[in-house]
Amino acid sequence: MKYVAIADELRDRIARGELPPGARVPSTRRLAADHGVAMATAAKALALLSQEGVVLAEPRSGTVVAGRERRGGPRGLTRDQLLRTAIAIADTEGLGALSMRGVAARLGVAAMAPYRYVRGKDELVLLMADAAFGERGYPATPRGDWRERLTLGGRTLWSLYKRHPWLAQLGPLTRPLALRNLGMHGEWALAALSELDVDAATLCDLHVLFFSYVQGIAIHLEREQHALASSGLSEEQWIDLQTPALEAMSAGRPVFARMLRELGGTGYDLVLDDLFELGMRALLDGLALRFGR
């Protein structure tokens, strides 16, 4: 991604001392011109460095290089900085791009410095996930019936998956993560589902069903990011290229062919937010019908 490459170049210039602490970094306009990108792309590169604590905005001075103590130097590195930087990498580049060495490089510290806080990448990812799931919580006093509360739980999880697409990629459903903050979301959903007056096994099944629905839709958030990055094609451009193959598929399949014709006339956008809401309503309608609630 272009903005990541711009950020990496600026980070290298800072590491070499070409841009010392307190020096102004190139403006968004200058970066856009130098790299031949849109202003928004250049701004995203600076935002990434700001999120990592490498640069900061100073009144009347613009964006400047942060001092080493602000950038997580060997003496200033904290566990919170480590997690925030690792999360920023996973958010922008995907979990596959995350490495202990890469996190250390982003922080401008020795390759072994992060190991003072975690034993390795696996532990780091679990801490990242726990921190991410803890970014949103629930009212101290629940309001509404079971359906309203379960809807809130689903939307809360969905918002976290959208903010951190890599979260949905962690572990199979059969091996749930024992994370304190994920347990908070689980308790909220279980409390709502318990109003259906079911036994413990059924309650567990319903909670797994609910969670797997949200996670199952969210899995496609990072997959779409990867598809866009690897192909360079938007969803619309990709669909346009598939038109001949889709038309060939419709031969001998009258329902599929009719659907394609109608969608060709009315237009259709596959919006994951809308799909999530549609599926959530269908799931809750089914539970209400099944358990008479």
TrEMBL record:
The record's annotation in Pfam families points to: GntR, TetR_C_1, TetR_N
| Top-level taxon | Bacteria
What are the recorded GO MF terms, alphabetically? DNA binding; DNA-binding transcription factor activity
| One GO biological process term | negative regulation of DNA-templated transcription
Output the SMART domains linked to this UniProt entry: HTH_GNTR
Q: Which InterPro entries match?
A: Bact_HTH_transcr_reg, Homeodomain-like_sf, HTH_TetR, Repressor_TetR_C, Tet_transcr_reg_TetR-rel_C_sf, Tscrpt_reg_HTH_GntR, WH-like_DNA-bd_sf, WH_DNA-bd_sf
In what residue span(s) does the HTH tetR-type domain sit?
Answer: 76-136
**Annotation: DNA-binding region:** 99-118
Per UniProt, which keywords does this protein have? Answer: DNA-binding, Transcription, Transcription regulation
Q: What is this protein called?
A: GntR family transcriptional regulator
**Which organism does this sequence originate in?**
Amycolatopsis rifamycinica
**Taxonomically, what lineage is the organism?**
Bacteria, Bacillati, Actinomycetota, Actinomycetes, Pseudonocardiales
